[in-house]
Design goal:
Layout: H1 6-19, H2 30-39, H3 62-66, H4 79-92, E1 96-103, E2 109-115, H5 118-122, H6 124-135, H7 145-150, E3 154-159, H8 169-182, H9 186-194, E4 195-200, H10 205-219, H11 253-265, E5 269-275, E6 280-282, H12 295-314, E7 320-322, H13 336-340, E8 344-350, E9 359-362, E10 367-368, E11 371-372, E12 387-390, H14 392-412, H15 414-434, E13 439-442, H16 449-461, E14 467-469, E15 478-481, H17 487-494, H18 515-519, E16 523-526, E17 536-538, E18 549-551, E19 555-558, H19 566-576, E20 581-585, E21 589-591, E22 594-596, E23 601-604, H20 608-618, E24 622-625, E25 633-635, E26 641-644, H21 651-663, E27 668-670, H22 672-677, H23 680-683, E28 686-689, H24 696-701, H25 735-747, E29 751-754, H26 757-764, E30 772-774, H27 776-779, E31 787-793, E32 807-812, E33 817-819, E34 828-832, E35 871-873, E36 886-893, E37 896-901, H28 916-923
Parallel strand pairs: 3-4, 3-5, 5-8, 6-7, 18-24, 26-27, 26-28, 28-29, 29-37
Antiparallel strand pairs: 1-2, 2-4, 6-8, 9-12, 10-11, 13-15, 13-16, 14-15, 14-17, 19-23, 19-24, 20-23, 20-25, 21-22, 30-33, 31-32, 31-34, 31-35, 34-36, 36-37
Helix pairs in contact: 4-8, 8-14, 9-14, 12-14, 19-20
Amino acid sequence: MKVKQLPALLAALAGLTMSISPVGAQQIDEVYNQKIREYTTDPRFLPASVLNLPDDPTVPSPRKHFGQIIGTPGILHRTPEIYGYFKKLADTSPNVSMEPVMTSEEGRPINLIVIGNEDAQKRLDHYKRQLALLADPRQVNPQNLNAILGDTKLVYYLNGGMHSPEMGSPEMLMELAYRLATGQTEEIRTIRDNIIVIINPVSEPDGWDKQVDWYYRYSKNRKDFNDGFPGVPYWGKYVFHDNNRDGLQNSQAITKSLYKIYYDWHPVASLDLHESVPLLYISTGTGPYNETIDPITIGEWQIMAHHDITSLAAQGLPGVFTWAFYDGWYPGYGLWISNNHNSVGRFYETFGNAGASTYLRDLAEQKYAGDPATSKEWYRPVPPTEKVYWSYRNNINYMQAGVLASLSYGATNSRLMLKNFYQKGLNNIRKGTEETPRAFVIRKDQRDPAMAAYLVNQLRAQAIEVHKAETGKNAGDYVVLLNQPYRNLAISLLSKQNYPKEAKFPPYDDIAWTLGYLYGVDVKAQDSVAYAPTDLKMLTSDIQYAGNLTGEGTSYVLNYKAQNTVLPALYWARAQSKTARATVLDERIAIDKDTLQAGSVVFSGLSPEQVRKLSTQFGLDLQAVKTLPNGKQHDITLPRVAIYHNWYSTQDEGWARYTFDQRGIPYTSIDKDDLKGGDLRKRFDVILMPRSRGTAADFIHEIDKKYSPMPFTKTPEFPAHGLPDATPDMTGGPGFDGVNNLKAFVEAGGLLVTLDNTSMQVAEAGVVRELRTNTSAQAAGLFHPGSVVMAKGRKPSSPLLYGYPESFPIFRGIAPLLQTEKYNRDLMVLQYGSKPLKDEEEYKGLIMGMPDRKPVKEPETKTPKKEEPYVLSGMVRNEQAIIGHGALFNVPVGAGRVVAFTFDPLHRFLNHHDAPLVWNALINWNHLGPDTKPAPVSALGSGPKAKTGGQ
C-alpha cells in the first residue's frame, strides 16, 4: 500500500465505524455523505463525526429542504430561509422547538432553537426553574441539593452568527440541529437525553443578511482571498465588530437578546462560534485571566478545551490548538455573560473564508503568542502546512466536530458541571460575607445624579442586587451588598483593574472598565456595612433621577457640572418653545447662598410646566430666580450638527450615532459626497468626525477607485443593503477637493470636532497645520491599552472644560499623539497627567551672558508633595512618555476652530464621564476663543433644525 493512500483509508474506516451503532437500522443519507466528501478538500479535514447524517423519513434534512447540503460551494441562506428551516424542524420533530427572543434594530427576528428529548420539551419550564434555583444558592436547602441536581438538565448554549463575515456557524447549526434531533448513535442520543441544547443561530441577523447580500453581489466570484477587496461597510444599524464588546453596556439588540436568553435559561455552559485563525482554536487564552473569575471556571476552560482537542485528535484533524490566542481578561464579550454569572463561557475560532468559497490560504506569516501557526507546540500537537486549500465545507466540518465533542462532554459530565455552577454562586456569597470589601456605596450626593441612577440600573441589568437606604442618616444612598451570587462581577465592575505590567503578550482588548470612573460617579468600597438591615430595601425595578426644582421666578438656573443630559435638554427646550432661550455663564457667579460654576446655564422663555418636564425628564436640578445673574455670559445658539462617516471604517461612527440617538441630540449623517459637494457651512455649524482607522491617505481616498462602481443600495435582489446609509458608489473618498471643502467649512466659521485617530488624519491632511504627529512617545516605548488615566486642564477657563475639576479621569486606549511647537502650546486645553513636558520645565541654572543671575534653589519642604498617579485603573508601560502631552486641542482656523481629541470620549457608549467634553464643544461651538464674536440671538437657535438620525 502506498503511504499517500493511508489517510483516505483511515477516513473510510472511520466512516464505517461511525455507521455501526446499537441502532444501526437507521437509514443514512449516502448522497449527503458523498457531497460532504466532494466538498471537503482533504480527507484529513473530514472528521468521522460529521459523516453519516441520518435520512429521517419524517424530518427533512437540509438537503431535502434546500435541495443542497450545508456547505455547498456558492450557497448561503438569508435569515428567513434559516428560520424557515428551523421552523420545519420544530414542526416535524418532537425533539425541537423554536421560540422568539426579540427583534433587531432593523426589525428582523432573533429566535432561539431548543433541542432535547421529548421529556425535556415537555418540562422546559421545570428545568428553567431548577437552574434558577442553582444560580442562587441562597434559595437551596443544602440537604436538597442532590435531589435538585438529580432532577435538573444541563443547558448548553450555542451562539452563531455574531460577526457577520464569519459565515460558517449559521449554516452549520442547521445541520447540527438536524443531527441532534434525528440521530440514533449512542453519542447523539446521550446528548439529546442528558442535556438541553439551545441555539441562537443568527445572533446578528441584520449584519448576516447584509453579508449574504454582499457575498452574492460582490465577493462570490473572487479568486484570491487576499486580493484586498473591501468588505461590507455595515453589519448592524450602529455596531460593527464591537457587537462582541457590548457586554458591559448592554446597548444593542444582539446583547440584550444574549442577556434575555441567559436569564431565562441560566445555561451552565456556552460556546460562541467565531472564525479567524487556522484551523480551529479552542479557547483558554494566554492570560492574564480576569482577577475576579472563580478558579473553577478557569479549570473548566482547561479541561473542556483539552477534551475537545483530544476528541478531534482521535479523528485525525490537524491544526487544532488552544492557549495561544486571546487572553481571558476583558469581561465585556458576549460569551462573558456566562463567565460573569458563574457559568462557563467558551469560544471557537475556525478558519473561515467569509463566504461559501474555496481558496488557497497562505499561513506562512501568521503567528500566535509568538509562534508560527505552522509550528508544532505543546498546545498544537498537529500543525497545518504553510499553505492549505481551504473550503467552506472544511470550516463547517471542523466547527461541527468540535461542537459535538463539547456537547458530548457536557452530556457525560452534566452533574459535575451543575454542581460547579452551584458551587461558584456559593463561593461568591462566602467571599462577600468573609472578605473585604463587604459593600459598595453610591452616595445620594453626586456630580451628575442622573448618571448615578444609570449606574444603578446598569448593575441591575447585570443581575447584581442593589439596595436603597430608605431610612437612617444616609437615606437615599444606594448600596451593593456583596454577600450575593454575583459578588465577583460587582467587584470587577466597581473596583480598579490591576493589569500586570509584566504580561508577556499584549492584551486582547481594553484592560480597564471601572464603572465609577467611566460614568463619573463616586463609588465607595466599604469594609463593613454601615447600614442597618432595616434601613435597606432591595430595588425591584429601575430608577430614574427626576431632578429638583426650587425657588421662585421665571428664569431657571442649572449649576453646571458637566451633566450628560444638558445638551439634550437644550434641544428639547427649543422644540417645546419658540421663545426658549439659554445663556451660559462664563465665570463663577454668586447667587443667593450658592456659587454657580462657569458653564452654568440659565433657562428662560419656558412655561412652569415645561420647566417641570425638563427637570424631570433630564434629571436636572434647577433653581428658579426672579432676576438674571450678572457677569460674563453668552447666549446659546444650538448648532446644526453633522456626523461624518467613511465607507471603509464605520465602527466608531456607529457608536457616535448611537450615543447621539440615545441622548436625543439631532444630527445629519454625511459622507464623502457631502464633502465633495461643498457649501458645508451653509448646511452645518458643527461637523463631528468620530474615530476611524487608517492614515490621512485612507481618509482622503477611502476605497480604491479600481473597484468602481460599487453601489451600496437597496434593490429587490439585495434588499438588506442601503442601511443605515446608501450610496451609488462606495469607492473613492472625498479627495483633495473634499478636504479643501472641509477646511473651507472651518475657515468660514464652522467647528470641526475630531476624535482619536481622526485628529491625526485631519492634521496630516492639512486641515489643521498647527498639530503634528508625535512619534517620540511610541519610540520611547509607550504602550497604552485601554485604561482609565488622569488628565489635567491647562486652560481651565476654556468652555471645553466647563463643569470639570482641574484634574479628572478619562479613558484612553492605543491612539496617536499630537503635539504643537512650543510657541503654540496655548492651543493645548487638556493634558495627560499632572506634570508639564520636559521642554516646558523652568530652567533654574546659570545663564551665560547674565552673570548676575543666580541659580534658583528649590525651597525645602518637610513633607514632599504627593505625586498624583497617572494610571487610575488598568496599566500603561513607560507612562512618562505621554505625561504632559496634549489630550485635547482647540485650534483656530480662519473664522472657525478645530477641536481635536487624542482619545475617544465616545468610546463604545462606555465612558459617559468623558462625553460632556464633546457636548461642551457643541453647546459653546461659536464661543470657544477670545476671537469669536457670535451674533446676538433671541432664542436657542434660528437656523434650520437638523434631523435626528442619519439621512
